[in-house]
Amino acid sequence: MEKIPMTPAGLAQLEEELRTLKYVERQAVIRAIAEAREHGDLSENAEYHAARERQSFIEGRVSELEDIISRAQVIDIATLSGDQVRFGATVTLADEDSDDEVVYTIVGAHEADIKSGRMSVHSPLARALIGKHLGDTVEVTAPGGSKSYEIVDVRFG
């Protein structure tokens, strides 16, 4: 079984989603199905079919989350240090064309949110950065063409 790297915060977020689905959403959909059944003929009951569809989604997501959590390899980034980019690093990059700076934290795929600055370890940019050091230049092929970045800061925790 392949391990899934993630931060302690990412694992906590998935565990909270799982708890909500199991103990809040699951109970609500059971009540909705029971209520819809009281309306009679199930073959033409849109509320019943919607509730069953929601139940199916919840059960699928519960199974998915249980699998992810069971395979989680939690990496405590507070114990990491140095100037080499690796999982958990917060990296400041300078675009070599425009000198614009961007900051990303390299996290697991299930906790990535590029709008919040959390980039998946499996993304092309993260793969290019892993193993590089402060001051190195990386080149990444993006949909808009090739981009070069200089690593201007590497932090952990």
UniProtKB/TrEMBL annotation:
Function: Necessary for efficient RNA polymerase transcription elongation past template-encoded arresting sites. The arresting sites in DNA have the property of trapping a certain fraction of elongating RNA polymerases that pass through, resulting in locked ternary complexes. Cleavage of the nascent transcript by cleavage factors such as GreA or GreB allows the resumption of elongation from the new 3'terminus. GreA releases sequences of 2 to 3 nucleotides.
PROSITE patterns in UniProt: GREAB_1, GREAB_2
Protein name per Swiss-Prot or TrEMBL: Transcription elongation factor GreA
Gene3D superfamilies: Transcription elongation factor, GreA/GreB, C-terminal domain, Transcription elongation factor, GreA/GreB, N-terminal domain
Encoding gene (name): greA
Organism per entry: Paramagnetospirillum caucaseum
Record keywords: DNA-binding, Elongation factor, Protein biosynthesis, Transcription, Transcription regulation
NCBIfam families attached to this UniProt entry: greA, PRK00226.1-2, PRK00226.1-4, PRK00226.1-5
InterPro entries for this protein: GreA/GreB_C_sf, TF_GreA/GreB_CS, Tscrpt_elong_fac_GreA, Tscrpt_elong_fac_GreA/B, Tscrpt_elong_fac_GreA/B_C, Tscrpt_elong_fac_GreA/B_fam, Tscrpt_elong_fac_GreA/B_N, Tscrpt_elong_fac_GreA/B_N_sf
Record bears the keyword Protein biosynthesis: yes
Occurrences of domain Transcription elongation factor GreA/GreB N-terminal (ranges): 4-74
Keyword Protein biosynthesis appears in the UniProt entry: yes
Classification lineage: Bacteria, Pseudomonadati, Pseudomonadota, Alphaproteobacteria, Rhodospirillales
Superkingdom of the source species: Bacteria
Family membership: Belongs to the GreA/GreB family.
Annotated Transcription elongation factor GreA/GreB C-terminal domain residues: 82-155
Biological processes, Gene Ontology terms: DNA-templated transcription elongation; regulation of DNA-templated transcription elongation
